[in-house]
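agent> Task received from the user: take the single chain below, predict its 3D structure, and emit structure tokens. No templates, no multimer pairing.
agent> Plan: (1) validate residues, (2) run structure prediction, (3) serialize to tokens, (4) report one or two observations.
agent> Step 1 OK, no nonstandard residues flagged.
tool_call: predict_structure(input=
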Amino acid sequence: MARVPAGERYYAIGDVHGELALFDALLEAIAADDAAREPAHSQVVLLGDLVDRGPDSAGVVARARKLQAERKTTILAGNHEEMFLAAFEDTGMLRHFLRHGGRDTVLSYGVERSTYDEATLDELQAIMNQVVPAEDRAFLESFQDYHIAGDYLFVHAGVAPNVPLEEQQRHHLLWIREQFIEYDAPHEHVVVHGHTISPDVDARSNRIGVDTGAYRYGRLTALVLEGENRHTIQAVAGDDGAITIETAALA
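)
tool_result: status=success, residues=251
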């Protein structure tokens, strides 16, 4: 059975995608869970894709910055952070970014919808360079590609099968999908990942997918790992907008 080092506790959070209310609720539940358990060296791992699609990417980035200042937090780069950062300089990537949820990110930084609609691509790029703080860009650029804890590897998208970790391409770590998802043999580590949405946690023998579609299904998940034990904490948005917390053991 895979395990994390003794005395350590990890809270791995799937793709937030601008859903600040779910993120806040989940962080509050994590703090309560951590306080209720035996003392341990605990840390949060954000698995990337903090931005795009949801209504408040700017707020999520600000909250993640605050979180990292408050407690030990590792933040991994996702493909949406890669697109966002490239869009400041490359209009071709800007077009791609906007088509994949980036419009909501730009609007979350205070750009009026009418201004957005009337702007050319070059004008919009100039607006982005004005409204997105340099501190936010530097923060996004600081995200790691992966993190190892005992028998677990945390990464945004996954790994290329049968390729040693030190030889993995960054593109695979941030973008891979079917080649990784459909592979059922062991990897060097049990891979904890986001990127590929499933209605609930997708736990396999070689990987655990925790992107439960915060922006699509209203469910944001944290996988909790301690020793050989693992369970989930989920912030779930109801039809009336109320958020509830659900916890469950994970075999």
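agent> Step 4: summary for the user.
Residues 49 and 223 are 16 Å apart (CA to CA).
agent> Done.
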